[in-house]
3-phosphoglycerate dehydrogenase
Amino acid sequence: MSFHILVTAARLEPAGLSLLEAAGCTVDFVSLEGGRAEMERKLATTPVQGVISRAIPITGAAMASCPSLRVISRAAVGYDLIDVEGATARGIPVLTAVGANAQSVAEYSLGLMLAVARNIPRHTVATQGGAWDRSRMGIELHGRRLGLVGYGRIAQGLARMALAIGMKVSAYSPNLARRGDIAPVTAAASLHDLLRQSDVVSLHAPMSAQNRQMIGAAELALLGPEAILVNTGRGGLIDEAALAEVLREGRIYGAGLDVLSTEPPLPGNPLIGVPNAVLSPHMGAATTVARSATAQAAATHVLAALRGQALPPDACVNPQALGVAG
């Protein structure tokens, strides 16, 4: 049986597309110009069975407009763009490409740590502009304490790299107790305990109502003047106004942020122009290897779901949807 698959992007890497084509699927795409409106129109007018999701939000209303829709498979790890509650109510499993981009994002997290600690972007801009400014001293990461908020595959990859350069690593996650001993990484009892004992904090928690602005003024006050905050998770995890204030006042050393609360940032974003904030446009997973791996995982998952085959246990965000009659 062939299926109609809608990809919410203008293209899909060959590693994923070839799997769909080999299965005889009809593969439709959403143009960059058409965006969300085009996606919603196609869902409402086309008998789509599966969606491979990238950067366009999918609401419950959009799902309801497509009675044939049976699965949404993310070519990514985060799922905050999907109305998971709406999908669950309709018996639509939401699947993620868990682990497929972990190495790339972990490496980017380390890159942000180093860029902030050694002021690399600032030195680059100054030197390219003709200055030879060696006045701002950097921070050596060896021997410093890294605190990981969340301890999934990305955080675990970053932990291995940090340990290799001589950092001490701790982690906090509400689910960490179920993992047992995570040595040589140590488990923190709470988020505030982790922040108090860390020189560098890296965020890897998923976006949720409970996690929104989990790093605010009270949490930032627990960090020292040489502390570094890194975020390759989701921008909404941080109160950006509070962070901008402590950065401008020098109450922490710097921040490396690959994600922002609104992307692209609006002109009034308080972090724009802050000299000790290193900002990048959500590039952590943007490597050829990661893009290929996430496309392959998304295609594999969508086909397995449509064929009624077993799914990886950690790929489904809403396993309860599997028991809802479609």
User: Anything to note?
Assistant: The mean pLDDT is 95. The first strand starts at residue 4 and ends at 7. The chain has two domains: 4-100+288-323, 102-279.
